[in-house]
């Protein structure tokens, strides 16, 4: 079984202004400028990206992209567009979740230095590309950054994150969270999700990965105050039970912070991050978590130089139409190449595709090579019509949850 990673294009070499804390996108650029911690998602079969940040070397501070521009990767070209109307203010370490109609963002750190974390909610209507600031009618999660979000049945789910006490963004002076919330887009209400078996819930953390497959939330990695979180945890939205998968961990040597992730069929794909293999350098390991068997599969070996680029804070988006995962941007830190005391970081703006079709193209019923896909969700694969019919009672709920927007 083979995984292929291929670079589609190299990054833009455009310089970012060294003075401004807010980066304005140049409408004449051919490619999006290098960045990390941006949003990336697939809408109507095309990759969209916006936001993110870059380090300004001269001042050792970050500059944030304004939210009024976005990019669409369309037939081998990047097309540059404008959001209409009011947009969220620039920020870093925020989180977003996306379904077939909306993208929701929450919180993060504002671009003004020394200002506390945010807890504002914004909704982007994907059909019109217009932002709306939510005026919540209920209690809202506390301000935070480094939290994670995912979508479950049209509702945005939020877990964990951090809050720096007195604006000092130092890990020793930080509150970590383990609260679980959902945001209902149709009523603009946040609510806490009822939890059982809380002795098995994930430790308080930030910079972690969360993804949803069917009716289960998965929480993995990130960092805690005093320890490295090791286990994959899951939460069942139907029974409200937490579960800890003690036998499912890729390696005790990996901290799995700042990974790029996406859901691809019944696999959670995680790329790179920073590991303790080499200090805080970016790594290039690909792990996939099989949600049906609750097991990790490691797809490659760590090699500092090679076909797999070292990345952290890159974005992964699975395009069901061409069955490829697109990876854009992120950070490439190589501590072996630099003086230990320089914190030089290096954002990248190249686009890769990751081909996992060998994993995905297996019949849901018999496991043989499958060439047909369910037209509702494009997730379930079948070797023949008979096996699709046979699987329908089992597949229909999952199909409804994962349906593809076709416009
Ligand atoms: Zn079959
Ligand atoms: Zn389906």
TrEMBL record:
Keyword Zinc applies: yes
Lineage top rank: taxon: Eukaryota
Statement: the UniProt record of this protein carries the keyword Cell membrane: no
Protein name: Ras guanine nucleotide exchange factor
InterPro entries the UniProt entry points to: Kelch-typ_b-propeller (IPR015915), Znf_MYND (IPR002893)
One example GO MF annotation: zinc ion binding
Domain annotation MYND-type: ranges: 363-399
Keywords tagged on the record: Metal-binding, Zinc, Zinc-finger
One Pfam family cited in the UniProt record for this chain: zf-MYND
PANTHER family per the UniProt record, alphabetical: GUANINE NUCLEOTIDE-BINDING PROTEIN SUBUNIT BETA 1-RELATED, KELCH REPEAT DOMAIN
